[in-house]
Structure formats: C-alpha cells, structure tokens
Amino acid sequence: MPDNPVIVALDYPTADAALALAGRLDPQLCRVKVGKELFTAAGPALVEALQARGFEVFLDLKFHDIPNTVAGAVRAAAGLGVWMVNVHAGGGRRMLEAAVGALAGSSRPPLLIAVTVLTSMSEEDLRETGCEEPIVERVSRYAALTADCGLDGVVCSAQEAPRLRLERGDDFCLVTPGIRLAGDSAGDQRRVLTPADAIAAGSSYLVIGRSITGADDPLAALERVHRELGTPA
Ligand SMILES: O=C(O)c1cc(=O)[nH]c(=O)n1[C@@H]1O[C@H](COP(=O)(O)O)[C@@H](O)[C@H]1O
Fold it and tell me: So what's the architecture of 6-228 in CATH?
C-alpha cells in the first residue's frame, strides 16, 4: 500500500464547487480525481488550479475510442501534468498499446490505468451485455490484457483485488472505487467494500467520492478513513 492511498472523487458540476471542497481537504492527506462531469464543465484550467493548490490529479475520463484518438487524448492528459489517467480495457489490445505508446516521449508520464468492469455493475448487468463470464473472470481477463500491453494497472472493485494480486503480483496497480464507510448508502454502486477491507484485499488506491464529499465535515471523513487504515504511516 502506498503511504497515501486515498483519492477523493470531485464529482461536482462547477469549478467553484470543486475548489470549495478541495479547500476543505489537505493535499498531504489525499489526491483528487477529476471526472467527466467536472472536466466537461470546467476543463483543463480546473486541473491546473487543483495542481497549483498542491493536489496530484487523477484525470478520470475513461478514454474508449479508436487507437489513434485515444493516443492523442492520453498525450494531451500527459501534457496537463496529471498524476494518473485511465482508458477502458474494453478498447482492446491495439487501443491499449497506442495509449502506452503515446506516453513514450513524455518526461513525466502519468500512471496509465485501464478500467475493467465498472463497480456499478452486478453479475446480472454484465450478463445482459452478452458476457456470460462471472465478473471476477472478466476482470481477470482484462487485467491480464492490460498488463500484457504494458499499462501500470487497472480500475476494478476491491472484491476482485485478492485474485488480481495473486495473478499480477505486487507491482500491478489496483485502483478501487466502490468504497463506502460503514453505514453509508451504496447508491448506484454494486460492488462495494469499506476502506479497511479494500486495503486488506490488496487495493493500491481507494477512490472515494460521496462518503467524503457528502459528509457534513469532509476533512473529518477523510481523517476517519486514515484512522481506519492507520495512514499516513
Ligand atoms: O474510473 C473510476 O474512477 C471509476 C470506475 C468504476 O468502475 N467505478 C467508479 O465508481 N469510478 C468512479 O469512482 C467514483 C466513485 O464515487 P462514489 O461512488 O461517490 O464513491 C466516481 O467518480 C466514479 O466515476
């Protein structure tokens, strides 16, 4: 586990709202994630504003397109100086390899991570897409492809982390959303674990949104996560 495994998801509709929450957090205690809603509304300037406040940024745009397009998008993300960026493993080998290739000339490449099966999906949801494999098998297959293409790791649920740790070893990065503090509602998530259980299962990084951003005191919720984990060391 890294010293600081917590990534707070800034799922907000405006830069002002995101910066207000960031102002209540401590960049020593977490990284932040900028996703589709916030980036569409606020763009690269918001990423730069967060970095200027000392936060490392996970740009979560889950690129999923033809190889040439994804390569360009990943290169643009690297140009923003983000710490982590993601693509969908479902884009296949040539897309994943194009994403890796796009970072080849970068002086400070971000961690490149592939999304496997979204944590909002249940076994039934996956079957309905025509995939008869159990989720853990599908995730394992995507993780093997991701590793083979030279990416740094995957986004998965912490429920799949024990299997992936065994199969992919200690250096493969497991980024796990679907994290809830005990007692919090799962909402639209289907494969959920607490922070402590997720780390025990082998997660490298925990992506936590509403359990922190929806709390009356977000900094206190973040500190509660660290108390449960015994971090930072
Ligand atoms: O790539 C992601 O970050 C992601 C992948 C996934 O499978 N599931 C998932 O929830 N996420 C993101 O993680 C965050 C979870 O937010 P909360 O459910 O509020 O904790 C959201 O910003 C999602 O977009």
Answer: Alpha-Beta Barrel (3.20)
pLDDT digits (tens), the chain, 233 positions = 667 999 999 999 999 999 999 999 999 999 999 999 999 999 999 999 999 999 999 999 999 999 999 999 999 999 999 999 999 999 999 999 999 999 998 999 999 999 999 999 999 999 999 999 999 999 999 999 999 999 999 999 999 999 999 999 999 999 999 999 999 999 999 999 999 999 999 999 999 999 999 999 999 999 999 999 999 75
Instruction: Map out the domains of the chain as residue ranges.
Output: 6-228
Residue from 207, 208, 213, 225 to probe ligand 1 pocket by mutation (most atoms less than 8 Å from CB): 207
Kindly indicate whether the ipTM for this predicted assembly is greater than 0.95, answering yes or no: yes
The CA dihedral of 228, 181, 177, 11, to the nearest 10 degrees, is -120
User: Rounded distance, CA 222 to CA 199, Å?
Assistant: 15
- Asked about 65 being catalytic, the answer comes back as yes
Q: Check if 148 is active-site.
A: no
Establish whether residue 30 lines the binding site of ligand 1, counting it when its CB lies within 6 angstroms of any ligand atom. Answer: no
Q: Which amino acid is at 140?
A: S
Place of tokens 């740009």: 59
Binding site membership of 119 for ligand 1 (Cβ less than 6 Å): yes
Question: According to the annotation, is 159 in a ligand binding site?
Answer: no
Please give the angle made by the CA atoms of 145, 146 and 149, to the nearest 5 degrees: 85
- 36 catalytic? Reply is no
Catalytic residue (one of 65, 125, 184, 197)? 65
- The number of the ligand 1 atom at minimal distance from the alpha carbon of 58 is 3
